[in-house]
Amino acid sequence: MAYLTEIDARHLMEEARLASENTYSPYSKFPVGAAVLTRNGNITRGCNVENASYGLTICAERIAIGNTLSMGIKDIVAIAVYTPVGPVPPCGACRQFIYEFGPDIVVVFNHGEEMLQKTISELLPFAFRF
Ligand code: THU
Fold first, then answer.
1. Residue 31 CA, ligand 1 centroid: distance in Å
2. CA of 61 to the centre of ligand 1 (A)
3. What CATH number is attached to the domain comprising 53?
4. Distance in angstroms (rounded) separating the CA atoms of residues 22 and 31
5. Any idea which residues carry the catalytic annotation?
6. pLDDT tens-place string over residues 60-116
7. Backbone angles phi, psi at 80, to 5 degrees
8. What is the pLDDT of residues 7-28, one digit of tens each?
């Protein structure tokens, strides 16, 4: 398992912060941004996209991963999650979604004053797969 260097983690978090500026979250007013780092060094962004039919809302992480795959890239190394409102680790649904693309993907998120790195296997033990 390989966590990112401090510099790389901060850079990825900054990309996530930039993505959060594009949020469409008029209902929750809870902006979230995500940034995916791929093996070749590419970074793809995503933000949360809400809907008047609340349950249709898509989290930033899933938009970012969809954007990555739509570029023809699947080898995801890490994903950072940012919100200006407060620290956010990925929700349960997003953990399962991230796990799909590799048990060793590193998740970078803020926790209190700290920026943490955990693999998706650490965040989602006994993940569903078949
Ligand atoms: N949200 C994310 O984008 N990612 C998460 O991991 C947790 C929740 C969004 C969904 C919704 O637009 C807002 O945060 C409040 O739940």
1. 8
2. 9
3. 3.40.140.10
4. 8
5. 61
6. 999 999 999 999 999 999 999 999 888 889 999 999 999 999 999 999 999 888 999
7. -110, 145
8. 999 999 999 999 999 999 999 9
Count of domains forming the chain: 1
| Closest atom of ligand 1 to CA, residue 89 | 6
**How many Å lie between the centroid of ligand 1 and the Cα of residue 89?**
10
Q: Which residues of 61-95 are buried (b: 16+ CB within 10 A; e: fewer)?
A: bbbbbebbeeeeeeebbbbbbbbeeeebebeeebb
- Ligand 1: does its nearest atom lie under 6 Å from the Cβ of 91? yes
pLDDT of 26 reads: 98
Question: Residue 106 belongs to what domain range?
Answer: 6-123
Please work out whether the CB of residue 94 comes within 6 Å of at least one atom of ligand 1: yes
Nearest-CA residue for atom 4 of ligand 1: 59
Crossing angle for the helix pair 92-99 and 60-70, nearest 10 degrees? 20
1 pLDDT more than 80: no
